[in-house]
């Protein structure tokens, strides 16, 4: 069995702290969790679990306060309330009932929020379709939704038109909403004559905790997208905990440039703001060049990031205005350790709130980070928090079979501090925050995420598919996604670790590391797609890699790219790169290979030497 290696970068000695120093964050986490659960219990007793109540409660308190700003236009809570009432009443007129699913494919714009809120107000559920999809992934997502209505952004008619016959064959009726334009295959939503009176109160009342508030799809980086069921109960608890832990108030102005079809923006951005009565500053999409000007112009206090967003921001040319802003918190997930300190110091960010969670998963963690201790960690559980929350376990994992390693009794083996393994999160059907609702209309994918008899007979855990490690003090560090770690020369190579080392080289703007099959060789060799400055010296880059990585981890192949292909949620795409491999007749980018201690051009001649077994790798 090939257990995972120790990830040297994962547990820096400088990040160790005493248990005494961990107590404040533990107490903060426990108080936030207890407060969130009590608040949820109150919602349940009142029959107000439905997410629409979170908005309505703030509307009742602050009807004339600014709830939303989009492209210079301001909307009060009253404006949003009345607009969503119109959508809700229109849906009812079209026969949509409590429990029905309405597919929503729309860019970030006020109409997205009006539709989402209107859907929930009548007790229905929105299926949030990724706006980057077309072809098979799009039709698969719409089929999976088991819906008969699609509300479509007028700017997104082209991908739907490309698969129109198949979509109509599923029984969809298509409506367009938001913006200008008209297409023959869809009817525009006209709300001018629709009442803005409150929708029927009994429709959202007594919504159950496990009822689905929205379907949020996985990114589809390892296959077709899966529709994760995000329940009302889980959204309530997540927003309530988040608001407490990160000190959100009605004075906060949160900048959301992440896609609303993703749970990060929808739940931890929008729902948190609705809960406290804050203001959402919404943009169509992320723009590195416009980001800070937007924040300054709108007096933003909280910014949200995901994936590689912060790397793009630190790669901007320096400006005397870098520290001129009113931001108190940057929260999100996926900020890499090599970016963390540079981002904080350059832009003078007081608190980085890195959190770990997944749309469909049952566990989460947070790192309320105000200084160098714990920088780069995706979460923290000190001794007290671990004593009270035993639901997160890192267990030994075989990277070749991609299976959990079990002992002679058939139970999983928990990793020691500093030892990487797969994170498992307990499934508890009595707790809305820990209940795995599964994937909508996909029993097979749901069953693959569940593992039973983990530590004792009958227990059930959720497989995250993430390789993590924990240090002695309770800081958790991300290693890789399952399948990203590969073997070369009988050694295990962590793509995340290699990427961090390569990205530390000044002229390397972005590195996407993966393993590729090489003719005549066992395992997979390391390859890195690199976006580099024009001043890149590849000999010095090779020297940097060889100095800071074991020889077997240094990428044998480099693929030069002008820009990196990413998902809609700013995660690097690898599947296509892995499939294309190293064959110059397939790969159109310029390639280099490690020849001794230097990166030299890799063309068909060099490739044929490898195929013929004449090249030493």
From TrEMBL:
Xref: Pfam families: AMP-binding
Primary localization class, coarse: membrane
Catalytic activity: a very long-chain fatty acid + ATP + CoA = a very long-chain fatty acyl-CoA + AMP + diphosphate
Residue intervals passing through the bilayer: none
Membrane topology, as annotated: Multi-pass membrane protein
Gene Ontology molecular function, alphabetical: ATP binding; long-chain fatty acid transmembrane transporter activity; long-chain fatty acid-CoA ligase activity
Gene3D superfamilies in UniProt: 3.30.300.30, N-terminal domain of ligase-like
Signal peptide limits: none
Ranges where the AMP-dependent synthetase/ligase domain occurs: 55-424
Keyword terms: ATP-binding, Cell membrane, Ligase, Lipid transport, Membrane, Nucleotide-binding, Peroxisome, Transmembrane, Transmembrane helix, Transport
Domain of life: Eukaryota
Job of this protein: Acyl-CoA synthetase required for both the import of long chain fatty acids (LCFAs) (C14-C18) and the activation very long chain fatty acids (VLCFAs) (C20-C26) by esterification of the fatty acids into metabolically active CoA-thioesters for subsequent degradation or incorporation into phospholipids. The transport and fatty acyl-CoA synthetase activities are genetically separable and are thus independent activities. Esterifies VLCFAs in the peroxisome matrix. The VLCFAs are actively transported into peroxisomes by a PXA1-PXA2 heterodimeric transporter in the peroxisomal membrane.
Family: Belongs to the ATP-dependent AMP-binding enzyme family.
Protein name: Very long-chain fatty acid transport protein
Species assigned in the record: Lobosporangium transversale
Organism lineage string: Eukaryota, Fungi, Fungi incertae sedis, Mucoromycota, Mortierellomycotina
């Amino acid at each position: 069995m090939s257990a995972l290696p120790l990830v040297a970068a994962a547990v820096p000695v400088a990040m160790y702290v005493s248990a005494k120093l961990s107590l404040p964050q533990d107490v903060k986490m426990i108080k936030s969790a207890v407060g969130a659960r009590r608040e949820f219990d109150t919602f349940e007793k009142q029959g107000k679990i439905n997410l629409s109540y979170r908005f309505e409660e703030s509307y009742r308190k602050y009807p004339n306060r600014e709830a939303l700003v989009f492209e210079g236009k301001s909307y009060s809570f009253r404006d949003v309330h009345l607009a969503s009432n119109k959508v809700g009443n229109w849906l009812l007129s079209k026969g949509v009932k409590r429990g029905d699913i309405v597919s929503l494919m729309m860019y970030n714009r006020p109409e997205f929020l009006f539709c989402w809120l209107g859907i929930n107000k009548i007790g229905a559920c929105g299926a949030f379709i990724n706006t980057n999809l077309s072809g098979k992934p799009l039709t698969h997502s719409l089929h999976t939704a088991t819906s008969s209505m699609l509300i479509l952004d007028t700017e997104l008619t082209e991908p739907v038109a490309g698969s129109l016959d198949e979509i109509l064959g599923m029984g969809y009726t298509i409506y367009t909403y938001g913006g200008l334009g008209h297409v023959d295959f869809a009817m525009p939503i006209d709300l001018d004559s629709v009442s803005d009176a409150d929708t029927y109160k009994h429709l959202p009342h007594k919504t159950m905790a496990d009822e689905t508030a929205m379907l949020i799809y996985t990114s589809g980086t390892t296959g077709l997208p899966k529709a994760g069921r995000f329940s009302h109960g889980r959204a309530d608890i997540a927003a309530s905990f988040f608001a407490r832990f990160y000190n959100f108030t009605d004075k906060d102005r949160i900048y959301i440039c992440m896609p609303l079809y993703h749970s990060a923006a929808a739940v931890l951005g929008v729902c948190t703001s609705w809960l406290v009565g804050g203001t959402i500053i919404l943009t169509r999409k992320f723009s590195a060049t416009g980001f800070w000007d937007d924040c300054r112009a709108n007096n933003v206090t909280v910014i949200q990031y995901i994936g590689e967003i912060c790397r793009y921001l630190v790669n901007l040319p320096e400006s005397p205005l870098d520290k001129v802003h009113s931001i108190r918190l940057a929260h999100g997930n996926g900020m890499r350790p090599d970016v963390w300190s540079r981002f904080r110091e350059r832009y003078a960010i007081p608190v980085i709130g890195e959190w770990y969670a997944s749309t469909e998963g049952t566990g989460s963690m947070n790192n309320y980070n105000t200084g160098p201790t714990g920088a780069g960690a995706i979460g923290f559980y000190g001794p007290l928090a671990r004593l009270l929350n035993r639901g997160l376990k890192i267990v030994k994992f075989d990277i070749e079979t991609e299976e959990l390693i079990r002992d002679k009794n058939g139970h999983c083996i928990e990793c020691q501090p500093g030892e990487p393994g797969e994170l498992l999160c307990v499934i508890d059907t009595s707790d809305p925050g820990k209940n795995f609702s599964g994937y909508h209309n996909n029993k097979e994918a749901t069953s693959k995420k569940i593992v039973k008899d983990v530590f004792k007979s009958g227990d059930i855990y959720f497989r995250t598919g993430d390789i993590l490690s924990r240090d002695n003090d309770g800081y958790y560090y991300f290693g890789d996604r399952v399948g990203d770690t590969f073997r070369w020369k009988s050694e295990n190579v962590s793509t995340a670790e290699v990427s961090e080392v390569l990205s530390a080289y000044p002229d390397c703007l972005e590195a996407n590391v993966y393993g590729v099959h090489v003719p005549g060789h066992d395992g997979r060799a390391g390859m890195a797609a690199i976006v580099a400055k024009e001043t890149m010296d590849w000999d010095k880059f090779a020297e940097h890699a060889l100095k800071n990585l074991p020889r077997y981890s240094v990428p044998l192949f480099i693929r030069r790219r002008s820009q990196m292909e990413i998902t809609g949620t700013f995660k690097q795409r690898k599947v296509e790169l892995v499939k294309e491999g190293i064959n110059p007749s397939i790969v159109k980018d310029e390639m280099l290979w490690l020849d001794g201690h230097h990166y030299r051009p890799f063309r068909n001649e060099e490739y044929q030497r490898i195929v013929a077994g004449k090249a030493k790798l």
